[in-house]
Task: inverse folding
């Protein structure tokens, strides 16, 4: 069975063993610096990176924002004002690179600050897996394992 590289440019670690040699583009295996070219919703952006000749989606790792149809316009607007058309650092966990819908997963930093953490602290998002049936509670929880992803000098 052939892989659809147009719909699903990212290969999971399991798929890498089968399709890596067939991939028409470079697979992202480590953290990188790119540009947020568009905000899709409160936890997904489109990114441009020098290693690829197309824009691709990134799903924020470890956060969950409400869907647009469920009151997520505020989160999207906040995120758009914060990082759209800005240079971002995308921290990629090699053991957890691709989500269930084939999007690259990453922790997004802008000017050294974790955007996902800011979204949690401002109530625009919740730690992934902990939302209360769509409610975004005010919390001062932190993204798990963030320190392991941020490269130290």
Result:
């Amino acid at each position: 069975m052939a892989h659809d590289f147009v719909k699903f440019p990212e290969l999971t670690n399991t798929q890498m063993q089968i399709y890596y040699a067939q991939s028409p583009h470079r697979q992202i295996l480590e953290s990188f610096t790119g540009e947020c070219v568009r905000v899709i919703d409160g936890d997904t952006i489109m990114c441009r990176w020098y290693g690829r000749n197309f824009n691709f989606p990134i799903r924020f790792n470890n956060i969950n924002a409400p869907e647009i149809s469920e009151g997520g316009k505020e989160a999207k607007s906040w995120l758009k004002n914060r990082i759209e058309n800005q240079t971002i650092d995308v921290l990629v966990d090699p053991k957890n690179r691709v989500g269930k819908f084939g999007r690259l997963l990453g922790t997004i930093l802008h000017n050294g600050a974790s955007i996902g953490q800011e979204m949690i602290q401002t109530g625009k998002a919740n730690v992934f897996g902990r939302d209360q049936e769509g409610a975004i509670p005010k919390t001062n929880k932190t993204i798990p394992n963030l320190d392991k992803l941020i490269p130290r000098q």
About this structure: Residues 73-83 form the longest helix (11 residues). Helices lie at 13-19, 73-83, 115-121, 146-149.
